[in-house]
């Protein structure tokens, strides 16, 4: 089966979901395929001021997640009016250099949400990711600004909306027998793990039945 994780680099809730994502990848290694895709947030999804952003961070990190640290709103730039495509394009471009795992996007997220770096700026996003991945900054930027990478991000964002969901993180689980489960906005490992276990069990049962009885009769 496969789990697809839809995320936005600057989403604080995606940041809170990363431990669960890492645990799932470890727990089901070799049995489940894992992939992440960008789902760009709309301008209206972003806070309108640093004080508002800090209020959201106190709610999510302090009240809901009981985090021992506070996220840094220093990445926020009012002049951008909610347009922060750069870090997402850079993370997506990293796939073309072999970084299909989580390394580059986590470096970008950490730089913004823990260090307050203004990665809405393409120069800053490229510099951070290039250092983390030991990549040539000019080549990474060229790829991040390519129409091919933009098209992939637009497509994955459209896929996210096709599931009729609006909250990130989102996880779409699918298996070989056609079952699908969609989680939108949850950050804990529990519900995801229980569902993965159930889907793996059902898939195994179908495989066992096929081994004993073959394909269904034509008539």
- The CATH H-level superfamily is Glutaredoxin
Number of strands: 4
Tell me the series of helices and strands, N- to C-terminal: EHEHHHHHHEEH
Strand count, sense and barrel status of the largest sheet are: 4 strands, mixed
Whole-number tally of structural domains = 1
Number of helices, counting only DSSP H or I runs of 4 residues or more: 8
Q: Give start-end ranges of low-pLDDT stretches.
A: none
From the coordinates shown, what is the CATH architecture? 3-Layer(aba) Sandwich
Give the overall shape, derived from the CA principal axes. Answer: globular
Write down the Rg: 19 Å
CATH topology-level name: Glutaredoxin
Structural class: alpha+beta
Q: Provide the spatial order of strands within the biggest beta sheet.
A: 2-1-3-4
Distance between the termini: 30 Å
- DSSP helix fraction: 40-55%
**CATH classification class:** Alpha Beta
Task: Please state the average pLDDT score.
Answer: 96
Q: How would you describe this protein?
A:
- With 219 residues, this protein is an alpha+beta fold.
- The chain has a single domain, classed as Glutaredoxin (3-Layer(aba) Sandwich), CATH 3.40.30.
- Helix content is 51%, strand content 10%.
- It has a 4-stranded mixed β-sheet with strand order 2-1-3-4, with helices on both faces.
- Helix 3 (86-94) packs antiparallel against helix 4 and helix 3 crosses helix 6.
- It is globular, with a radius of gyration of 19 Å.
- The mean pLDDT is 96.
């Amino acid at each position: 089966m496969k789990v697809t994780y839809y995320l936005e680099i600057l989403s604080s809730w995606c940041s809170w979901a990363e431990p669960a994502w890492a645990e799932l990848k470890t727990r089901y290694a070799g049995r489940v395929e894992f992939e992440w895709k960008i789902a760009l947030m709309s301008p209206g999804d972003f806070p309108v001021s640093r004080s508002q952003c800090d209020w959201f961070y106190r709610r999510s990190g302090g009240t809901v997640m009981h985090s021992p640290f506070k996220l840094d709103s220093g990445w926020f730039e009012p002049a951008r009016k909610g347009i922060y495509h750069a870090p997402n394009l850079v993370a997506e471009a990293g796939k073309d250099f072999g970084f299909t795992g989580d390394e580059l996007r986590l470096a970008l997220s950490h730089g913004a949400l823990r260090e307050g770096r203004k990665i809405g700026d393409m120069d800053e996003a490229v510099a951070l990711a290039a250092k983390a991945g030991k990549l040539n900054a000019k080549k990474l930027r060229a790829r991040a600004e390519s129409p091919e990478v933009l098209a992939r991000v637009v497509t994955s964002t459209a896929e996210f909306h096709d599931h009729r969901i609006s909250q990130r993180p989102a996880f779409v689980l699918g298996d070989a027998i056609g079952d699908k489960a969609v989680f939108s906005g949850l950050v804990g490992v529990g519900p995801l793990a229980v569902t993965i276990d159930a889907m793996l069990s059902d898939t195994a049962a179908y495989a066992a039945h096929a081994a004993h009885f073959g394909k269904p009769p034509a008539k």
